């Protein structure tokens, strides 16, 4: 799905002393995301978003990607803008556009399903099959007590995800997911409901008592570009995955 719109980001950009109090104000000190850049050219960049960093500003005003956009401008007057979203816990490949025209083209590529997205996740268990395809439409439900979540619903929006087991360690599986649609929480729901095994640490769709950091990683991204080489990026397997005994897939 497309995410943060260019106009909304531009409207939030701090000016002068406003930078001291407005959302999106630059983070002072070390340019912490410099070492996370996976791809950059004149119209786009891909960063390896750290787990725990939200793309959009949280309601509590805590740090988000917007606070780092100025440091990612690299001499451009315009700040880059995220083309799509990753959940707060999800690390990995996040595409940023460096000008409004590029943002529009890339957002359309996501909407039309032209972007190749690859994710890795650790599941709480080992699937009965080594690979498969989850075809499960998704809909949003909300209750006052539990808040909102996505559920499988035949009346929902179409959602399909191909998957395969990459490795198994200590009763858990490292699984590669290739979604062909971009619904909210698609991989998380397709793992828990479609495969029958939730992503380790998922506080919403995971097993009771095992909530923590959702072990989901956007490992690779390929964005086609007319008249240019495609944008290609690969994010290395994070330490929180290797800590559970999994190695970088071949």
UniProtKB/TrEMBL annotation:
Pseudouridine synthase RsuA/RluA-like domain residues: 45-192
Coiled-coil annotated spans: none
Alphabetic keyword roster: Isomerase
InterPro entries found in the cross-reference section: PsdUridine_synth_cat_dom_sf, PsdUridine_synth_RluA-like_CS, PsdUridine_synth_RsuA/RluA, RluA_PseudoU_synthase
Gene Ontology terms for molecular function: catalytic activity, acting on RNA; pseudouridine synthase activity; RNA binding
PROSITE patterns for this protein: PSI_RLU
Family of this protein: Belongs to the pseudouridine synthase RluA family.
Listed name of the protein: Pseudouridine synthase
Organism per entry: Rhizorhabdus wittichii (strain DSM 6014 / CCUG 31198 / JCM 15750 / NBRC 105917 / EY 4224 / RW1) (Sphingomonas wittichii)
